[in-house]
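help with this record:
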Amino acid sequence: MPRENATASHAESSQVPKPWDDFDGLGHYYQYRPEYPSAVAEQLRVMLGNWTGGTVIEVGAGTGLFTRSVATALGPTYRIVALEPNKDMRRHAASQTPAGMPVTYMDGIAENLAVADHSAQLLTAASAVHRFNRSQFYQEAERVLIAGGILAMVQYKPFDRGSAFADDFLSVIEGALPTYRRHRHSKPEGGYSEIDISGELKGLSTFQGVQRGAFVHHEQIDLETFMYRALSFTIIQKAMIATDRSHVMAQLFEIFDRHADQKRLVAMPYEAEIVTARRVDHALKS
């Protein structure tokens, strides 16, 4: 059984709200979230081609959706340390990860990684980096990655280009949250903003070879999957708090009914974006 290590790198007992508090009680809904396209983890496997094994650090692992995808692609020669500060998420991750996968789930945060210096070939975060203090996270990435090691950040979002259903779904959120606009992300301190991960990494002297890729995944889903998947998004939870839960739920039911086919399925497209960079080998540059 995958291990869950509760060793804390932050004060969980603090009463000050933390960005990960938003995920309390949402672990159950994550089983309805879409899988990450296998091509994303496969890209990382190819990029790690110079090594035959090693250590992967994942930050903000949630319920382990991306963790398991990476573990499957890389195989047993890579040990994955999956850090997740929300206890409910860690519990679901450990329970859903097959026995024998070389994964350890631990309490930990992006800004203070409980990882030895220069110990990892890959540091990754999936659907989480927008909640980090990224300047501190990038400093930690430089510290924990070996020379030539890979920093990879993945974002997964509804793809509204050419999809009336995805457009209507995002419009429900925009109508409930005046400061939210599609393609914006939650900020750690609250509110929403657009982020440019590629641009941020290109501005750092400690990383080079910044690349961006995108994979669009289309999926036919039924009403139950759609509703539970919607409830797994903190942005939907905030929309229900800002307006009225029953009103938001009624809107979601309505757009599903409007777009469902004869089999009571809707096409929900998602885009997975991956941005990668390599830690500079200063010895080679000098």
DSSP finds ten helices and ten strands in the chain.
